[in-house]
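All the exercises in this workshop are built on plain-text protein records. Sequence and backbone structure share a record, each on its own labelled line. The structure tokens are whole numbers drawn from a learned vocabulary of backbone shapes. The record below serves as our worked example for the rest of this section.
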Amino acid sequence: MATLRDLSKHLGISVTQVSRALNGYDDVSEATKQRVMDAARELGYSANISARMLKSGRSGIVAMVVDAAAERDVPDVLMAGVFGLSTSFARRDMQLILHAMPEGNDPVETHAKLARSGLIDGFIIVNPQAPEDPRIAFLDRENVPFVVHGRDRIAPDYPYVDIDNHMVGYTLTRYLVGLGHRRIAVLEGVAGAAFSTARVSGHVAALAEAGLKPDEALVRQAPMTEVIGRQAMHHLLSLRDRPTAVVAGNTMLAAGIYTAIAEHGLRIGRDISVVAHDDRLPRLSAEDFTPALTVTESAISASAEPLVDLLIARITAPQAKAEARLLPVSFVERDSAQRL
């Protein structure tokens, strides 16, 4: 098995520089880091965790804790995120542990146990709850390195990667209002999820701008699955004053909405308009819907690299000012919504 010295000799750089490159230090150029990673794979180098911890105090292992029951219904979203993160950490000679927390377990205590094990260098927090996520509060209080995919408040002082979810809700609703729609339903993620709360607030803001009041009967916050989308749309279509347009929180909900509309013998775009946010999940491509789906668009996979970069920065320089990355969101108009 190759050693640090073997890598040093092979690349013609010092053992110290090889070690710092493998551990993601900022004083090593990205080009050198990539050369070292490529050589490590070529020579079959694998860091010994005990030796690594003895030398640097770090294991090279990070963890992401998910609620097994909550994630079971949305495997596409989870796997898109985990695949990107695992690949990005592997390129930096680090390992991501996915810890599926059994139903009923306390998420704070779960993070505390993993942190106390001494084997975890940092955490990735997903699906933050608003207005203050207890996991974030605990890790921040205990000075445990972490990064958040999303955020639990508007301007946090911890590292995070997010999109402007308020603007997502606002953009989709404003677009429909511009087409003449006044009865606009919203199907979003579970109540309490920060992203879902922000999108609903954006929806309300767009209505208010047009002089319209939100109707609670047209807002549904629940797990974002195809089954839920179908069930919720059937309910909305049974209302005496049914909506003329629907905003879906993701393409899975949109797929269920499409099915329900077809089952009612209605035409998408003609009888009822549908728009959605698209996470660019591999299995559900918005342009392949019939008719093609109008969306705001930001791929979940695009968050992997910045999440890894920010967590490594937090691990290596915990006292440095927290950074944040707000990823771009594009709007793509297709055929699923038409003017009234």
Observations:
- The longest strand covers residues 61-67.
- The chain is about 45% helix and 15% strand.
